[in-house]
Protein 1
Amino acid sequence: MIITVTLNAAIDKSLSVPNFRLGRRHRTVEQRTMAGGKGVNIARTLKALGQPVIATGFAGGATGTHIVEQLTEESILNDFVRIREESRTNTSVLDPTTGEQTEINERGPAVSEREVELFRDKLLYLARGAAIVVFAGSLPRGVEPDLYAGLIHDLERLDVTTVIDTDGEPLRQAVRAEPDVVSPNVLEAEELVGHEFSGEDERAQVVREIVALGPHEAIMTLPDGCIAQVLVDGHLRSKRARIEPREPIARRGSGDAFLAGYVAARYEGRQPDHCLRLGVACGAESTGRLEAGLIDPREARRLMGDVELSSTEVAAEVG
Ligand SMILES: Nc1ncnc2c1ncn2[C@@H]1O[C@H](COP(=O)(O)OP(=O)(O)OP(=O)(O)O)[C@@H](O)[C@H]1O
Ligand SMILES: [Mg+2]
C-alpha cells in the first residue's frame, strides 16, 4: 500500500469564464469541482496507474465532507482526520478566449495540537501496512514547520520509504530528517540550497548539494524532465531524464503527476531508470489535461519510450 499525506486538502473549483475581466460580473459556461491538494492529486494518479493507495490528511467542515465524498466517488480509498475548522476551496478561472488562468487560493484552516496528535496516531497506524508514504504540499496554519520532519522521524522505525514534496522552511527541516526521497522543482531547490543556478553542470551540482543536506536520494524536476541523485546498488549516481517539452494546456499539477509515476514504479520494485522514466512520462502526459492528477495510464506508459536517460557514472562524494 502507498499512503499519500495531504495536510492542506482542498476542493478545487474550476470555472470557465469567457472574456473574464476584473471588476465585472460574469457567468460561468462550465464549472467543475474536484478534491485537490498535492497528496490528493498524487493519489488520483496512483489509482489511475493501478497502484493501491490511501489518501490521508486533514478535512474539516462541509468542505471537508465534500472532499471525502468526492474521493469516495472516485473510489480513492481515504482516511482523513476530521478537524474543527473548514477545509479550503481553491478557485481557478480559465478564460477560454485567451487561455489565461487566474487562481485564488483560500488561506485554509488552522489545525490544533490535539488534531495533529490524532493525525500522527492515524499515520503511524496506516503506515504499518504501507511500503511508501508520500508527504506533499504546504502545511496548514497553526502547525510548527518541523511537522514533516517529526513525522519522517516517527516513520523511521517502520520499514517504509518516505518521500517528500514541499517547500520553504518545512522542506528545509524535512530534508534534515533524512527522508528517502525529496523532489523539489527548480524554485524550491534554489530556496533550499540558498542560491540561484543555471546550466546542466550547476544543476547536477545542486542536486548533490541537496543530498548532502540529509535525504538519501533527490530528484529535481525540470520542464524537460529531471536531474536526480539516486541509489544504484547502494551507490549514489547522477541521472538525467529528458523529454521534449510540449505546449501545455495546464502546467499545474505536473510535478504531482511526476511524483506519482515515480512512486508507482518504485512500489513495483523497478530500477531507478524505469522509475524516473515513468515519472517524466506521467508529468508530460498530465500537461495535456486541465484536471490535476487525471492521466491516461496507457498514454503515459507509451510516452516512457520518448524519455531519454543518461547517467554519470562518477559516484558523488557526499555524506
Ligand atoms: N511543458 C511540458 N512538457 C512536457 N513535460 C513537462 C512540461 N512541464 C512539465 N513537464 C514534466 O512534469 C514534471 C514536473 O514538472 P515541474 O518541475 O514543472 O513541476 P512542478 O513545478 O513541481 O509542478 P506542480 O508542483 O505545479 O505540480 C517534469 O519532470 C517534466 O517532465
Ligand atoms: Mg511541485
Note: The chain has a mean pLDDT of 94.
Protein 2
Amino acid sequence: MFSDQLKNAVRQAERIGRETPLSPSGFRALLEKSAGGQILEPEEIVALLNGTHDQINQKTVLEFAAQDQRPKDRDILLLPPLYFSSVCENQCLYCDFSSGGVRLSLSDFAEEFAALVDLGYRSIELVSSQDPDIYLKSPDYSEENQSFDLQGVLPYFEESSRRLKQAGGGMLTSNIPPVDRNGFQQLHAAGLDCYLIWLETFNPDQYEKLHYSHGPKNSQTFRLNSIEESIAAGLKHVAGAFLKGLYDWRKEELILYLFDSYLKAQRGRGFSIIGTPRLKGKFTQSSLVKPYGVSDDEYILNIALDRILFDGILWLQTRESFPFNLDLIDRFGGGVILTLTSCTAPGGYSKPPDARAQFPVYKQDLEQSVAQLQERDLNVRFDWTPEVLATFLRNNHSTQAQS
Ligand code: SF4
C-alpha cells in the first residue's frame, strides 16, 4: 500500500525549498520528460518542484504548459455534484458541514437527479458526508478496518444508475467517505464507475491537527488505502487531489505525484481525474493554515504543473470563479472537467436548497457559460461515460487494457 511509503514520501517532500534550484536547462529537460509521458524518478520530481521556487523556472512552466497539447484539448466535460447527505460525524476544522446536516429522502433525491438529467447531464457526482445513520458501523468496525452496512447508501446509487440507464447511459462518480473493499464491491454493483476522494493533506502531523480524533476520518491510512481498495474491487477510474491551502502545496504536489506513480506501477493505472480544490472561506485565516495560503499566481502555476505531470484529466473547480477557470482554459487549453451547475447542499436543483452549503461556490448561468465556451470553439459535453473519460487520459493504455 502507498500508505506504507508515506513516511518516506514526506521526508522527500521536506527537501523542497531547502535545496538550490535546478538550472533552467535541467529544469526544462524534466518538463519535457514528463510531458513525453515518462515517469520522473523521485529525485527528479523533488528537483523539479524545488526548482519552481525560481522565477525563471516558473515562467518556463507557464510557457511550457501553454504550448503543450493534452488529449482532447478542445473538449470540456461537464460534471455536476449531487449531495444526498450533509449529516456528518467528522468535524473537519475547515468544513461547514460539522453541524446541522440534512439528508435527502430517496424521492427528493430522485427529483434532484431527474432535474440534472433534464438539463442534459449524464455524468453525475454523488456526494455525501460521513452520515452515521447511513454509513452504519458493522459489529467488527474499527478505525483501521472501517466496515459499514451500506443498505442506507446503496439505494441512492441504484436509483441513479436506473435513471441513467433509462436516459441512455452515463457515468456515476462518488465523493463519499471511504469504505472497505467489500463496500466498494457493493457500490460498484450498484452502479459506481469512478471513486473520487480528496486526500486533504498528505502531511500526517497537519492531517492530525485538522481532523476530529473521534470520527472515522481520523484514520489517514484508511483514507489513503481506499484508493487501492476501490481498484481491487474492480473500479476502472479513481480520482484524487489534495486541498490546496492546508499545507505547502509544492510538498503536497510531490506526494500526489509519487502516489500516482505508485498506482501506475503497482495497480496498472494512476488517477484518471486530478482535482484542483483550493481552500476558501474564513478558515483560511486560521493560524493552522495561514502560512500555506495559495495565491492566484501560485494556483495557476500548480495548474500548469498538473497539466505537465499527470496523465489524468484536470477537474477545474467551482470554488474558483467561472472567468478565472475560463482564463485557465484560454491560457493552457481544454481537455478538462468543469462544473457549471453546482449546489454544495443537499437539494437545490429541483427547488431552492434549505440546507447549509459545504463551501461557497460561484453562481453561474449554465446557458451563458456554455455559450462562452462554444464561442471559443470548445466542444462542451454533458453526456459522457467511463469509456469517454479514458480517451482524455494521456498514455491511456493501462486504463484501456483493463476496461
Ligand atoms: S469535510 Fe467531509 S468529512 Fe469533514 S466535516 Fe465536512 S463533510 Fe464531514
Note: Residues 249-267 form the longest helix (19 residues).
